[in-house]
Specification:
By secondary structure, the protein is α+β, with helices and mostly antiparallel strands. The protein has an eight-stranded mixed beta sheet with strand order 5-6-8-7-9-12-10-11. It starts with a strand and ends with a strand. The chain binds zinc ion.
């Protein structure tokens, strides 16, 4: 059911916050979505409430069946397709992927030369992250049509389409839209699923856990939006970063000023604006905090109507009062500072971090090298840092009123290669730590004793921009920037979404070797605090200053992959079985800076069950980044126990001994037998215990055959429902 809760005092807000209900908190009231058990909890607080919609399912059905004048999923897709087909020079439909239920995650980009990435500010409007807030998709899809049909007719629109790259993404959550529900098809509130200061709200499984979140995140990653507006409904308010903490973000002044521009150019009588955390209420895992915290974009939630589904007679009204403000944002996205960053020797664009004053940094476009950031008229200092280049600073940049200051940079390559943290991709500080300033950009770039303190039991993920390659020695160093060394575990992955594999623990500044993980390289590094010390103090947790890759000069061979091929002379199941002959394939990659020539590789084992027949075939010479495979025939004795692990030593050398290394390879023979067969006759079973986080331990058991077997069998459930974590753990 949907329930309105009236909030008069800070105590009221606090009482409600402790319940961690799903929903939104606005100035003076909240709108929450409850199951019957939760209504009982709400009653117990004594807060004043009113049930707005007793049966949400019936309500959604009614909306779906009666309000034909809304654009529905099929209408919106059809309108986007038709604009892209009718106006191919300025409108392109871009597919990000599929929703949980297989619907299109798709946006339109509108610009002249729409197929070419140009030196233009980019701006995003998205809608429908909450599927039941219907006006939001209307605003965005109608703007696609509005820009297309007025291009070449309306001078202002023509000018904007020619000089901006305008993104419109009408349905971030198409499944929610179709079912007229807030959540995606996995029941997750997508505006709590974002990775920057994620904290498990709204049923989120983890940072960026849902396909809808990943899709928009990748778009943000590849396109630095100057302004990113996310439309919502439920009140009328512009909610700006931060939403996760009460103090002002470093970009507060120009964000507030631009929110004022949206408000005053719109047709609302008085569209209020302010910081999400204090103007509405603290939430973790919002898209606005992530796009601001990770990319330095001006990013906000635009709450455009008190009704989530206003009468259809008002659709046009809400759209029309937002048009002038949307046009103003397109215009203003070209104000502030801008320029192009290139390599001084080649003229190629450089992927760089752009630091304007002490604001959160933004990024250059990787194809063109251009950057754009909205700031107020005034005098600014810009520093550009980039992996492989000397930093450059320009001072006294004067930004005019209603215009931009253009400053181009030509960066000199460094004498020795450099490779530091590039982007702050995700983080969690359990229950937040407002006592620390949360300076996440502090851990990017070279070591400088400016830190981000990751919080007690906190973690963060750093994107290194491109992979750190595994070499024969330690591959990267994690720097702690203060005098009191603290403990942490370090994980690596090739993808932002993992899986992350541990490469060990450290105390203070520590070096790590990627080969411990079994991966040939790693682009994403996750630092996890060891939980020592206090939570709510400044500098809580490990103080991450920088991550720096080490470089191997010369050739550097690593094992990229190895596998069994038993398709010839074996049973073809991809495994070596007892009594079977198969080929063991080994793939080598050159992770070094010079060509690997005359590669010599030998493989040995002292395993009594294994016979190696002959020598490995030859590897070709490998230029940096190249791979090649070779194989050797092996035989497993019929007596090999199923599940037996065989270890091989692989000696590799090249360039007449200039490089040599030994790798350990392990394969499993046959299918391992089942080693654990636990019958849960009692609960918890002997040697196990249960535990719960946040809402206490809610495990219960019953002896029945509800699971479909023969009674008695144990059935496990938690009741009442909980947003916390529940675990069944062995001693
Ligand atoms: Zn919303």
């Amino acid at each position: 059911m949907e329930v309105r809760v009236n909030l008069y005092t800070n105590e009221d807000y606090q009482k409600l916050a402790e319940l961690r209900f799903n929903g939104d908190v606005y100035p003076g009231f909240a709108r929450v979505y409850l199951i019957p058990d939760e209504l009982e909890k709400l009653k117990a607080t004594g807060l004043e409430y009113e049930i707005l919609v007793p049966d949400l399912e019936a309500h959604s059905k009614m909306i779906r069946e009666t309000k034909e004048q809304w654009h529905w999923y099929d209408d919106i897709i059809a309108l986007m397709d038709s604009c892209a087909t009718t106006f191919p020079d300025i409108c392109k439909k871009v597919m990000f992927g599929q929703s949980v239920e297989g619907r299109q995650l798709t946006a339109c980009v509108i610009s002249d030369n729409v197929d070419i990435e140009e030196n233009e500010p980019e701006i995003m409007f998205d809608g429908g992250i909450h599927g039941d807030e219907l006006c939001c998709s209307e605003n965005t899809v109608r703007m696609i049509r509005h820009l297309c049909v007025n291009y070449g007719i309306d001078q202002e629109i023509t000018e904007l389409v020619n000089t901006r790259e305008i993104w419109l993404y009408p349905m971030v959550n198409p499944d929610g839209r179709v079912h007229v529900v807030r959540y995606n098809a996995n029941g997750v509130d997508l505006n709590r699923d974002w990775g920057y200061m994620w904290d498990g709200w709204g049923g989120s499984w983890g940072a960026y856990s849902q396909p809808e979140t990943k899709a928009l995140r990748q778009c943000m990653y590849n396109h630095q939006f100057v302004v990113h507006t996310t439309y919502h409904a439920g009140t009328e308010y512009i909610s700006c970063p931060w939403s996760y903490r009460p103090d002002h973000c470093p970009d507060y002044n120009h964000i507030m000023q631009l929110a004022g521009v949206y408000s005053s150019t719109s047709g609302y009588a008085n569209l209020e604006y302010g910081q999400g955390c204090t103007g509405m209420y603290p939430i973790n895992g919002s898209s606005k905090d992530t796009n601001y915290g990770m990319m330095g974009s001006i990013s906000w939630s635009m709450e455009i109507s008190y009704d989530k589904q206003p009468p259809t007679s008002q659709i046009y009204y809400y759209w029309s009062i937002n048009i002038p403000a949307m046009i103003a944002m397109m215009e203003y996205s070209g104000y502030g500072v801008e320029g192009v960053v290139t390599d001084a020797e080649t003229g190629d664009p450089v992927q760089a971090i752009v630091w304007v004053n002490d604001y959160f940094p933004t990024y250059t476009d990787k194809e063109v090298g251009d950057y754009h950031k909205y700031v107020l008229p005034g005098t600014y200092t810009i520093t550009i840092t980039a992996n492989g280049y000397e930093s450059q600073t320009v001072t006294d940049i004067v930004v005019p009123s209603m215009g931009s200051a253009v400053t181009d940079f030509q960066l000199q390559p460094t004498a020795e290669p450099t490779h530091y943290g590039y982007k702050f991709s995700a983080s969690q500080i359990p229950d937040n730590n407002y006592a620390d300033e949360g300076n996440t950009p502090g851990c990017l770039g070279a070591p400088d004793n400016i830190n981000y303190s990751i919080g007690k039991n906190g973690w963060c993920i750093i994107d290194m921009q491109y992979p750190i390659l595994d070499g024969p020695y330690n591959d990267f160093t994690v720097f702690e920037g203060d005098d009191s060394p603290e403990g942490f575990t370090c994980y690596v992955s090739q993808s932002i979404d993992g899986p992350f594999v541990s490469v060990g623990t450290g105390i203070g500044t520590t070096e790590f070797n990627i080969s411990v993980s079994g991966l040939p390289d790693a682009q994403f590094i996750k630092i996890y605090d060891d939980g020592d010390g206090s939570a709510n103090v400044a500098d809580a947790g490990f103080d991450l200053d920088a991550i720096s890759a080490e470089f191997i000069q010369g050739p550097n061979l690593v094992v990229d992959n190895y596998y069994i091929d038993d398709s010839i002379g074996g049973n073809g199941d991809g495994k070596l079985d007892p009594g079977e002959n198969a080929d063991l394939y080994i793939v080598l990659r050159n992770n070094g800076t010079e060509t690997a020539e005359n590669i010599i590789a030998d493989i040995y084992t002292n395993d009594q069950y294994i016979t190696i027949n002959g020598q490995l075939t030859d590897f070709a010479d490998l230029e940096p980044g190249q791979i090649d495979s070779a194989y050797v025939n092996i035989f497993a004795s019929l007596l090999t126990p199923a599940g037996h692990q065989t270890d091989f030593d692989l000696d590799v050398s090249c360039n007449n001994g200039a490089f040599s290394n030994t790798f350990l390879l392990s394969i499993i023979i046959g299918t391992p037998p089942i080693l654990v067969d636990e019958h849960f006759d009692t609960f918890p079973p002997d040697g196990w215990y249960t535990e719960g986080a946040n809402n206490g331990n809610n495990w219960q058991s019953s002896n029945s055959n509800n699971a479909g077997g023969v009674a008695p069998e144990a059935e496990f459930y938690w009741s009442p429902s909980t947003l916390g974590q529940q675990r069944l753990v062995t001693n």
